[in-house]
Amino acid sequence: MEYPKASEVKRPISENDRNIRRISMWKYIANRLAMVLIVIAGVTLVSFFAMYLAPGDPAELIALERYGQDLDKSQIESVREAEGLDAPVYFQYFIWLDHLLHLDLGRSIITSDDVLEEILLKLPATIELTVAGLLISLLIALPIGVLSAFQKNILLDNCCAFFSLIGISIPNFWLGILLIWLFSLTLHIFPSYGYGSLSHLTLPALTLGISMSSITARLTRASLMEVMEKEYILAARARGFDEYTVVLRHALKNALLPVVTFAGMQLGYLLGGAVIVETIFSWPGIGKLLVDSIFARDFSMVQGCVLFIAVLFSLSSLAVDILYAVLDPRIRYDMYD
Amino acid sequence: MSISFLSTQLLSVENLNVSFKTSKGLVKANENISFEIKEGEIFGLIGETGCGKTTLGKALLRLLSNNARIEGRIVYRGKNILSLSEKEMRSLRGKEIGIMLQDSSICFNPVLSVGSQIAEIYRYHEGMKKKDAEKKASEMLELVGIDSSRKSEYPHQFSGGMLQRVMMVVALALKPRLLIADEPTKGLDPDIKLQILEIIAKLVKKENSSMLLITHDLDVSTKLTDRTAVMYAGEIVEIGKTATVISDPKHPYTFALLHSLPEKGLMNVSGQSPSLIFPPSGCRYHPRCSNQLVDCSKIHPTLLEHVDDHFARCLFSEKNSKNVKREPHLIPDTPSPGCAEVGIRHC
């Protein structure tokens, strides 16, 4: 029996089909973006009202800062009036929201610095640390994960598992102190604190990288081992490909899907400031700013930081979602199908 | 005569035993399997689910999991597949022996487009440039009736029947001498089923290749194959020319299978398929057999030639058939050309 060639058969639908598919990626991104906006709206609510749940009267705090220890009631009341704190809470929220939309996060009640300016000033240091930490963790985790998934040598695999377990169990602050002791106090290779050069970056980035890499390595290993059991890996072998092609081309991209999700979550978390590590190494990032503001009861600064961190977190999870769709076509077309 | 017979032999399987070590015990998936496939021949392997057909197909290309133990000989064009190195094995897979694995929906990488999965075969094995390989992939898709503009789409966007056809393209891409097709029509509508089988048969015949068709569908096997082996509980219970096996089955299991076809009365084969860890004593089919003799539960029958080139493993047929050739009934480890002349090469 002869079959007509598919190219000779008219299929008016197919061009249209492809257009819809091309749109679907944008539709997917738009959909995610809408979700992010909803989350951010929620975050503004929480970060605004959380300050009212905290003990203490904001007006009193501000007055304390302005007039010193011996206050009288009229001074507090005048501050309350001047700062608009006497209006109903929901009204204050909308005014705050209005300022927010104009990118005005207010001023620090301690230093009177512009909150947004202050945060943006600290952002580069945080980004620097985040990217370096994430890179180090992936550089350690991916090779170890891939190796231990394929190592027929059980001893080596167990060693990897052992060190991963240690890595998971060691708290950040202890690892940081350990590294300071080894590399600055004993070997005098890297400075123990400060910001500015690559050698300043090394220890905090290592601390972050090492502690994140242990989980990522385990995840890579588990995911890769699972993928290697799939039928399409067998099918790739049946096509006569060598193990190198099978693993790198057919298995790794699939196996990295959960790793990308995890790394993305880490990214969001780190962008919010690796609070402990930044504090240990006096790293002038957002995490340290947040901690300092909390200690100083600088609530407008805390409010601004929390909001900023939440927005960064949402955006980085948006980035992960998009990356996920790029890696896995099934997600991209879900909306269309 | 013996020389001409030997020259046309493509693959011979001799006393193949495949077993898996599991926590419940040793699963004997294939026991003492011997058969051969000639050049240009379509050979059918039929049997119910779980009888070891798929294991046999994968064993031929050494694609079984690590806990499998393979014994015996699989000789492909004079080379024993089981003693080849992994590198030699790779040059065999795809190029000399292609395989269509069962269930095409899970045999494609979900994150690579269908076109690139075909093209990579040409790039890897024939060193084609990316553009040429993609062009070739388009041609191959058109050959099985799929619009080549769909080559940038992903496996999950294709229907089952289309994936089956793509699978065929992948298996036949390098024009292998032998195609192992494992349930190529599983889960397909009857009309598509025939269409796909016709395309496969056409492509195989065009290259004068051989095919091992593994199926539980007797209808399919009847229409396409030259010779058929019937498998039950890890053993071959009957083997012969398809026409004679169908018209005059010597094993009660084959008989029951035939009568389970709609046009033959839709009778079901009673009972359950046996465990491969603890197979029944004596004849493995005896608990389900309607022609049971007293000895059936005690004596494990051997594969005997009933008529020319038609073998069965059954005490009942043995008793009722006058011209069963009793000696010699087991193939020696290395078949001598003499064996071929007496016609005992299958057992």
TrEMBL record, chain B:
Highest taxon, organism lineage: Archaea
Taken from the UniProt entry, a GO cellular component term is: plasma membrane
Reported EC number(s) for this entry are: 7.2.2.11
Bilayer topology reads: Peripheral membrane protein
Keyword rRNA processing assigned to the entry: answer is no
User: What is the protein's name according to its record?
Assistant: Nickel import system ATP-binding protein NikD
Give me the reactions it catalyses: Ni(2+)(out) + ATP + H2O = Ni(2+)(in) + ADP + phosphate + H(+)
Q: Which residues form the ABC transporter domain?
A: 13-258
**Subunit structure, interactors included:** The complex is composed of two ATP-binding proteins (NikD and NikE), two transmembrane proteins (NikB and NikC) and a solute-binding protein (NikA).
Q: What NCBIfam families has UniProt attached to this entry? A: oligo_HPY
Sorted alphabetically, the Gene Ontology BP terms of this entry are:
peptide transport
Which GO terms fall under molecular function for this chain's record? ABC-type nickel transporter activity; ATP binding; ATP hydrolysis activity
Q: Which InterPro entries does the record associate with it? A: AAA+_ATPase (IPR003593), ABC_Ni/Peptide_Import (IPR050388), ABC_transporter-like_ATP-bd (IPR003439), ABC_transporter-like_CS (IPR017871), Oligopep_ABC_C (IPR013563), P-loop_NTPase (IPR027417)
One Pfam annotation reads: ABC_tran
Q: Any idea where this protein resides?
A: Cell membrane
Its keywords, alphabetically, are: ATP-binding, Cell membrane, Ion transport, Membrane, Nucleotide-binding, Translocase, Transport
**Major site of localization recorded for this protein:** membrane
